[in-house]
């Protein structure tokens, strides 16, 4: 059988392929139908058909790039918003006239932003970065790019569902973006969207139509995540190439698999919470609302609901969600550290088991976000115990990363720097998690800047570092060129030092009781001493933001002008994505799929620098990792 | 079937199961919220209207007709298959109609969607379920149209099998909800 047959995987004659091709795109049964054939786009046709290639592409690599670029655009928007509200916190007296120009004068009369606008900014900042950038942008990019390439598949199990996943994400973004320009503005009730504020339209400006748009956008986003996740799991479990047993999978793939499972089990719960909220807002039901009196409006007709119910549902998703954000970074960092240390990852099995343990525990700790909701103290203590258990697998991972680079002959690349930076951030932020996990300490720290510091370091910045590491490392696979090293190092150092400058001082503010989500702390005498610190944080935030523009410049510049990749395997890596051509077509491998014989981390084994996964085991050779 | 094709077929069925798992999680969330809220007291218990009993009988029979549709297709009796598959479709529509009448009947007893959460939950959960039946009907009509043609094709049996799995799942889901709605947990 010819290779064409192999990847065509269809009994039809090839002459008919070009015609059946089109039929597949119009297949309306997408939901249960999985494309049986792919890899049939010969490059001539692709060139002719711009829309197929760049817009409605079903090639996983192109979809990955779409997720990445959309994610970058959202990151600029979401990050930019944070700079605007940091101005309010650091330099409240500096007029910002551009707000009026962009969003309308009523949001910033005389250049001074209103509290409603501030609320809108923090809500959109959180939503955009958690969901659009660090969930879709991170998982979407690397799951799409790496899964088929690293397991040896022609494409995803269902390229069509995969494309739909992107377009639902795109739509979710379009709805969210539009909401900025509604007369009542975008949602302004914080990313966690707690009722009653979110459930009663008349509660605040940010609870009006913008909140409806937020809910619609999130529903679309959930559909996107579910379609994506379903596809990732199916692909990993069913389409691995010959020899690629689960115990030979790169850790990137394990991480993406566990991420997708978490998403599949938790996003539907958020959807359930959102459905009930939509009914409360629009149909007058009382799922989350009890008797409420709003000054100036009067008593609301609701009765018998419970706002805490929402918090339970939200955090049942919310806690797994934070691991959905960080697990792909775990995978990327593990891979990049091993490749650039020229050493096997320390404790391959332990790495997988600890990810599984973290994922399993993620479903039993949600109430640690609710210690001050009047939770029964006994229940609270159970959640304290379960929460602190997470420290064990987390510590195992940190230990293994450090051991991997210990005494290694490290190759310094921007990707490597960001991976090491990731480990640092994960330690710093994870430690504060242990403080917060103790309910007795959390009562003091809850809803202060300490929380902001904790989750930005451990999740926000760390996940971004994972993403940067991944982009620098796999850019050659995506575009056939390298990103500029020097700009990469500048980007790393400014971001690394700058991020600590932003978030480290927040711990002190939080311990002193400075509450988060406040438009101004000026009314509190005791917080005045933090004025200069706030200014410092704001300046650091602006500098870090500017450094990201350097990254964007590097990304775009290198796409067209970067140093060309001239060898198949520029990083001397073991994984099989580097056995594809420098510019792989749809179908990835020109010949038959590669066969795998060994694990992905045979670096420095028996005196050899590296042994790719496609190299057969030698007689008498034993497996490296245990 | 080639090796890669077989892998793909297995992947489709597996993907469907994952999809069903997400639907199951959605209803797990909604029914857990129901239990938690019931535990908080001040709960209005809704007696199931007789229309819901009828719709339950209808959706069970639709699963039976689809089962026989599948077996007749397998044994090559396409005309019988065609009759049964469209019968299933009609039963699906009848189910939705009786659900709708059930909602009207509950409203007649003075329990509206915006009253005590005990009533609101019944409306909302059963509506979310009906949305999944509607999705099933859309898929079912597509499968029915595509597979009603005479020529035998092993791919058809496979597709009908996937469809059957989904259909039995929403059927089972309703039976679960219907029993669930009649339990006093506290
Ligand atoms: C050792 C592990 C960790 C422990 C024990 C821990 C514990 C906690 C606790 C108890 C809270 C609630 C604090 C409060 O609101 O009063 C919290 C908040 C948070 N944590 Fe962690 N955490 C850990 C690691 C992580 C990781 C790895 C991530 C993300 C990748 C993360 C993301 C978050 C986020 C996003 C919030 C705040 C959400 C919000 O209120 O807006 N945490 N953490
Ligand atoms: Cu948590």
Question: Can you walk me through this structure?
Answer:
The complex is a heterodimer of chains A (626) and B (186). Chain A has helices at 3-8, 17-25, 43-48, 50-55, 60-90, 97-103, 115-151, 159-179, 209-238, 251-282, 307-341, 348-361, 377-389, 391-405, 414-437, 439-445, 449-479, 485-511, 531-561, and strands spanning 293-294, 298-299, 603-605, 608-610. With 626 residues, chain A is mainly alpha-helical. Chain A folds into 2 domains: 1-38, no CATH class; 55-91 and 120-607, Cytochrome c oxidase-like, subunit I domain (Cytochrome C Oxidase, Chain A), CATH 1.20.210. In chain A, the strands form 2 sheets. Chain A has a two-stranded antiparallel sheet. A two-stranded antiparallel sheet of chain A has the order 3-4. The longest helix of chain A is centred in the N-terminal third of the chain and has 37 residues, at 115-151. The model of chain B has no long low-confidence stretch (mean pLDDT 91). Chain B has 186 residues and is mainly alpha-helical. Chain B is elongated. Chain B starts with a helix and ends in a 6-residue tail after the last helix. Chain B has 5 helices and no strands. Chain B has helices at residues 3-39, 50-74, 78-108, 117-147, 154-180. Helix content of chain B is 81%, strand content 0%. Chain B has a single domain, classed as Cytochrome c oxidase, subunit III, four-helix bundle (Four Helix Bundle (Hemerythrin (Met), subunit A), Up-down Bundle), CATH 1.20.120.80. The chains are: A mainly alpha (626), B mainly alpha (186). At the A-B interface, helix 1, helix 9, helix 10 and helix 11 of A face helix 1, helix 4 and helix 5 of B.
Which key phrases capture this entry?
heterodimer, A: 626 residues, mainly alpha, Cytochrome C Oxidase, Chain A, 2 domains, two-stranded antiparallel ribbon, 19 helices, 4 strands, 61% helix, globular, disordered N terminus, B: 186 residues, Four Helix Bundle (Hemerythrin (Met), subunit A), 5 helices, elongated, binds protoporphyrin IX containing FE, binds copper (II) ion
């Amino acid at each position: 059988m010819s290779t064409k047959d192999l990847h065509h995987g269809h009994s039809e004659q090839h002459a008919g392929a070009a015609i059946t091709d089109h039929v597949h795109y119009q297949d309306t049964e997408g939901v249960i139908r999985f494309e049986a054939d792919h890899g049939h786009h010969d490059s001539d046709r692709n060139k002719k058909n711009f829309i197929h290639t760049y817009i409605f592409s079903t090639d996983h690599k192109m979809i990955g790039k779409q997720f990445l670029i959309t994610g970058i655009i959202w990151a600029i928007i979401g990050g930019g918003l944070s700079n605007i509200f940091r101005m309010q916190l650091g330099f409240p007296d500096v007029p910002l006239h551009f707000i009026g120009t962009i969003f309308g004068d009523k949001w910033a009369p005389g250049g001074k932003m209103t509290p409603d606008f501030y609320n809108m900014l923090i809500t959109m900042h959180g939503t955009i970065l958690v969901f659009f950038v660090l969930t879709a942008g991170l998982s979407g990019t690397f799951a799409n790019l790496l899964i088929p390439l690293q397991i040896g598949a022609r494409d995803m199990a269902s390229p069509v569902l995969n494309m739909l996943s992107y377009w639902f994400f795109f739509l979710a973004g379009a709805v969210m973006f539009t909401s900025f320009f509604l007369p009542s503005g975008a949602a302004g009730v914080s990313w966690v969207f707690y009722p009653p504020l979110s459930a009663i339209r008349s509660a605040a400006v940010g609870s009006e139509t913008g909140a409806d748009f937020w809910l619609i956008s999130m529903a679309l986003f959930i559909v996107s995540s579910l379609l994506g996740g379903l596809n990732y799991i199916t692909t990993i479990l069913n389409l691995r190439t010959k020899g690629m047993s689960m115990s030979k999978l790169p850790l990137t793939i394990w991480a993406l698999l566990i991420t997708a499972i978490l998403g599949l089990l938790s996003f539907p719960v958020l959807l359930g919470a959102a459905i009930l909220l939509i009914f409360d807002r629009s149909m007058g039901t009382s799922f989350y609302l009890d008797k409420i009196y709003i000054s100036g409006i009067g008593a609301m007709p609701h009765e018998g609901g419970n706002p805490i119910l929402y918090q339970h549902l939200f955090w049942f998703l919310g806690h797994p969600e934070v691991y959905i954000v960080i697990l792909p970074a775990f995978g990327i960092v593990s891979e990049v550290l091993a490749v650039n240390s020229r050493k096997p990852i320390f404790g391959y099995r332990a790495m997988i088991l600890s990810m599984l343990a973290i994922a399993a525990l993620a479903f039993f700790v949600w109430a640690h976000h609710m210690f001050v909701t009047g939770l029964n103290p006994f229940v609270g203590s159970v959640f304290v115990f379960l929460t602190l258990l997470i420290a064990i697998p987390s510590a195992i991972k940190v230990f293994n990363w450090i051991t991997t680079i210990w005494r290694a002959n490290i190759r310094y690349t921007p990707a490597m720097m960001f991976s090491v930076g990731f480990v640092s951030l994960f330690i710093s932020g994870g430690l504060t998690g242990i403080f917060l996990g103790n309910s007795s300490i959390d009562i003091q720290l809850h809803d202060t800047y300490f929380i902001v510091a904790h989750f930005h370091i451990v999740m926000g910045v760390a996940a971004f570092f994972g993403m940067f590491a991944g982009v620098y490392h796999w850019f050659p696979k995506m575009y056939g060129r390298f990103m500029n090293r020097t700009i990469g190092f500048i980007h790393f150092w400014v971001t690394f030092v700058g991020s600590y400058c932003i978030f480290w001082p927040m711990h002190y503010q939080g311990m002193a009781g400075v509450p988060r989500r406040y438009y101004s702390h000026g009314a509190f005498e005791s917080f005045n001493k933090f004025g200069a610190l706030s200014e410092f944080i704001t300046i650091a935030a602006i500098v870090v933001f500017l450094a990201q523009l350097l990254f964007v410049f590097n990304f775009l510049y290198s796409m067209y002008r970067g140093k060309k990749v001239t060898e198949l395997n520029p990083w001397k890596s073991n994984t099989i994505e580097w056995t594809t051509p420098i510019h792989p077509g749809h179908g990835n491998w020109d010949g038959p799929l590669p066969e795998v014989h060994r694990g992905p981390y045979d670096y420095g084994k028996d005196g050899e620098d590296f042994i790719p996964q496609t190299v057969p085991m030698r007689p008498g050779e034993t497996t490296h990792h245990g | 079937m080639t090796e890669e094709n077989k892998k793909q077929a297995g992947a489709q069925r597996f993907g469907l199961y994952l999809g069903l798992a997400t639907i199951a999680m959605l209803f797990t969330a909604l029914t857990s919220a129901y239990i938690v809220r019931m535990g908080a007291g001040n709960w209005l218990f809704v007696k199931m209207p007789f229309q819901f009993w009828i719709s339950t009988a209808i959706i069970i029979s639709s699963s039976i007709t689809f089962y026989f549709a599948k077996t007749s297709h397998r044994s090559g009796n396409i005309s019988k298959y065609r009759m049964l598959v469209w019968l299933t479709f009609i039963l699906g529509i009848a189910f939705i109609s009786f659900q709708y009448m059930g909602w009207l009947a509950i409203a007649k007893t003075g329990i509206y969607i915006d009253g005590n959460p005990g009533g609101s939950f019944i409306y909302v959960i059963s509506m979310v379920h009906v949305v999944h039946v509607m999705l099933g009907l859309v898929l079912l009509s597509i499968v029915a149209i595509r597979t009603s043609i005479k020529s035998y094709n092993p791919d058809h049996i496979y597709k009908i099998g996937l469809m059957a799995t989904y259909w039995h799942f929403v059927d089972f889901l309703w039976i679960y909800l219907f029993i669930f709605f009649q339990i006093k947990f506290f």
